[in-house]
Amino acid sequence: MPELPEMDNYRIQLSQLILDRPITKVVINREKSINKEPEVFIQEVTGRRIIFIERRGKHLLFHLDSGRRLLLHLMLGGLLYLGTEEDRPNRSTQVELSFGEQTLYFIGLRLGYLHLYSAKETDEFLSDLGPELMDRKMNQDKFIQLFSKRRGALKSTLVNQHVIAGIGNCYADEIAFEAQLRPSAKIQNLSEEDLARIYEAARTVFHHAIEHGGYMELPLTQEDKLTGGFNDLCRVYDREGEGCIRCDGVIEKSEIGGRKVFYCPKCQHDK
């Protein structure tokens, strides 16, 4: 599932490619991917311009010049591609937004969605999300205060979108590795020093992942050489049986709360 770095990568690149260009055509191939009758959705979006793209957690918000928002969540398996009919991937698309000769293809929205909301409806829909780790308002002290109130496994807390928005399976494991703590470490047993280390680890991992385009498998455009660059830079996620890059341990795979976890049993600790 795309997480904060993947969605931020999309936000940054699309902001350079589609802003202020009129949406010339809208195609709905799967009605369940939208929240309006197709005719209403098409009428309200066609001819509009996207004037700003915002990320909130794992969501993208396309601000339309009408004041309304297109709210995207890719969920599991969702992808974006901007290009032409000739170079588009051979994948089924659920929604298509055309900008003249180029089309933004929303791929794999079997579980994801692209909803049209007013600004107020958008705020209400996202109101239960936790704060943003990379927001200017977030700092180490606020992070410690936020997490010191929690109980349970570190991984379960990191991926809880009501606690902090944008972290999923991959980056929770990468953050735990950077902080030299096991994903199973109990939050209530961690010191303020441990929580400060987690905060700095999370920011380090996210800066690195965003810089390298996240781990998505498909480039956003035919010319895109950035997207997916972090896939080969993951240090523990999906590396079961491989040697640890920090010590002579071997990466193990386990499960916490139904989620797979990857960690080094030698250099990551419960406390």
From TrEMBL:
GO terms for molecular function: 8-oxo-7,8-dihydroguanine DNA N-glycosylase activity; class I DNA-(apurinic or apyrimidinic site) endonuclease activity; damaged DNA binding; double-stranded DNA binding; zinc ion binding. Its EC number is 3.2.2.23, 4.2.99.18. Residues 2-112 form the Formamidopyrimidine-DNA glycosylase catalytic domain. It catalyses: Hydrolysis of DNA containing ring-opened 7-methylguanine residues, releasing 2,6-diamino-4-hydroxy-5-(N-methyl)formamidopyrimidine; 2'-deoxyribonucleotide-(2'-deoxyribose 5'-phosphate)-2'-deoxyribonucleotide-DNA = a 3'-end 2'-deoxyribonucleotide-(2,3-dehydro-2,3-deoxyribose 5'-phosphate)-DNA + a 5'-end 5'-phospho-2'-deoxyribonucleoside-DNA + H(+). One of its GO terms (biological process) is base-excision repair. Belongs to the FPG family. It comes from the Bacteria. The keyword Zinc applies. Residues 235-269 form the FPG-type domain. The keyword Zinc-finger applies. It comes from Paenibacillus zeisoli. Its cofactor is Zn(2+). This is Formamidopyrimidine-DNA glycosylase. Keywords: DNA damage, DNA repair, DNA-binding, Glycosidase, Hydrolase, Lyase, Metal-binding, Multifunctional enzyme, Zinc, Zinc-finger.
